[in-house]
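Colleagues,

Please find the record for the two-part complex below.
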Amino acid sequence: MNAAVDTLPRSTRPAPATPVTPARRFGWLLRREFWEHRGGFLWAPLVAGAVSLLLSAMGIAMAMVAARGKFAGDTEISLHDGSRIQINGLDLDMLTSRLGHEELARLGDGLDLTLILASGWPFVVLAFVVFFYCLGALYDERKDRSVLFWKSLPLSDGETVLSKVASAVLVAPLLATIASILTMFGFLLLVSLVVLFYGGSPMDLLWGPASPVVLSLQYLAAIPLYALWALPTVGWLLLCSAWARSKPFLWAIVLPLLAGTLVAWLEFLGVFDDVTWPFFRNIVLRALTSIFPMTFMDLEYLQSVQFDVPGATRSLMSPAGVYRNLGSLDLWGGVVAGTAMILAAVRLRRWRDEG
Amino acid sequence: MNATAGMPVVEARGLRKAYRTKLALDGAGFRIEAGRIVGLIGPNGAGKTTALKAMLGLIPFQGELSVLGRDPRSQRDELMNDVCFIADVAVLPRWMRVREAIDFVAGVHPRFDRARCERFLANTQLNPRQRVRELSKGMIVQLHLALVMAIDARLLVLDEPTLGLDILYRKQFYQRLLEDYFDEQKTIVITTHQVEEIEHILTDVMFIRDGKVVLDAPMEDVGGRFVEVLVGADQAEAARALGPIDERSLPFGKTVMLFDGVSQAALSPYGETRTPGLADLFVATMKGTYA
């Protein structure tokens, strides 16, 4: 009986409907992360966008009520070229007809900036969602012991952790970006209604001068760079998540801050010179805040950007600008450190004994 | 002809695993052949779970261990295609829906048979839309067992799979396993404290104590090797001379003595003989463990 075990045909078993390939397996791992974190990945950014739209609508309604009656008499509106027009009530259509080429361009810039601000909430939520997702990704499964179920399946620790990284830096940002784009168009629709109410043409006043489609594509194009920039934080949080016996949140926050304080103290004692800020910038901030969609280079750029140059807002997020980050040591140093920490997390998951 | 034919499913030599405060495995060695149902039995802290974890590649350890011809330390990923396990009760992720669990295992396991799994679940009260956290402990075990039994694994390892379940679920669990899953190509290793409930399904038994295997025998040998005799007070001294490994007193001056390796014929003059239950054997073998 025993001797025959391996020679017996195993073909009596029906073949699975679709063969399991590494790519399909990875797809299922991503789906599994999405199932578990549907609330954070999908609903949280959508709700953030919806709430920001609601607040905008309330603000606009308030402004409209406040403005009622103000336009009752003849109103003088001065245009950029110095000419003045008299309008009876607020007649946006007439206003539009007097706008010159330059005014329209400026209007477009203003609108684009408003759109970026209006569509920003899903990204803020994204940063928090990704932060807590990474902290829990390898900790929760140990705490509820479901890791024993996952490990009973033919899934390697490497591909499992990689699926969590991909969920954090690609899936969640993609969903947040879609929520953000929906919010942007929602906001435009909302303002269109207002414009219509005052007799203006949304086409001429809003959809023409603003560039929502360009902005949307720019958002989408920026996701891969976001993924690279976020790696050190994602790596650090996953490492804490795989390592901590309890309270991964505290470890993740306290260790870098403590290290930073120690460095500052040593500098104060005169052991080091000028290391505190570089340490905070390159270690503490990179380990904890890189999941916010803004690099150091982006921040410097924001400080120097000339908003009165026509088209300035549209070029804020231009792929050329975003991908300049590929030339920065900040980015690649983070990628290297993040990858190393992710590999350490894989190793910890492989050998950690949950006795 | 296959070179691995006749190879044991598990072969261990000199397993050692030390935790910070104690030695969990102390040179344990054993061999499990294909087509067996092996009960790994031992008191708390004897190293059962550690031995299983070593077989499943969940922990680092010292010594030689080969599972289906592979080293679980370095070849765990390949090994898990052929090995499945239920470690501990109710470890299915609580957020998961029944349907999601089936979809997921079907998606990632090349040996999973979805129709089989659904057939097992058809007789239960599980509903595909329910989340695991909404299920009772017994229902979670039903789901887990259905998932695992639909996987055509060569080695199934069960570590206390029915702990905390009521007798109905426990009986059903082992019955299912025996009727719908086990065949001569499969091997099952079980640990449990409820020795009486599994002894009739085991083909082999292995006692483990203080990190060592103290008894490793097929069930039919256990019957031939160990004899229990009900000895009257007048015969007690004479019987004791044959060297029982354990004795316990009954009311009315009778004593039950357990002999290892003394034939039934040699013992029958001293009183009524019978084959001891696994639980009695276990208690006799493990005496003094907690002393």
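DSSP finds 16 helices and two strands in chain A.

Comments are welcome before we finalize the supplementary table.
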